[in-house]
Protein: Two component LuxR family transcriptional regulator
Amino acid sequence: MIRVLLAEDQALVRGALSALLSLEGDLDVVGAAADGEAAWAGVLSLRPDVLVTDIEMPRLSGLDLAARVARDAPGTRVVIVTTFARGGYLRRALDVGARGYLLKDAPAAELAAAIRQVHAGGRAVDPQLAAEAWGERDPLTERERQVLREAEGGASTAAIAAALGLSEGTVRNYLSEAIGKLGAETRVEAARAAREKGWL
Structure:
């Protein structure tokens, strides 16, 4: 049996995934979590073979969760199931150690097959997204991404500096670099462009 832990903040989707996967004779859904931190606690206590997680979740994103699992619980493999059909998200997911990336509108049989493939040591990635992901490279550094995330909500340079432990001049430099790389006019426009590409 392949032991599976689900991480999905929408109760209806979480329940549907659990019910569908439980119909598979070789898959055992050992737990389900509504946020990233609860999922991490589940990984530590249940030691599942495969963690199936969304990207956007409260308390800890699916990408941060995948990175933590790869670093601290390498016996668990990660499959991301999301609505984000963006190459940038796929690249980041693979970069942090996810072994699978599927869209939520994929058939249940495809998810079950992906779990088996990842459990066996392979990868399972939506082929159309894979082609898109390698078409355009994310130009942002991790620090530029952090600064843009803060700016996206309308934070001032001083507030961003305080939140990230940087000087205001350094924040201005990161913002300027990111705006230039994205061909944007303003920090908000740059954040929006990066978000649309899946780079934030």
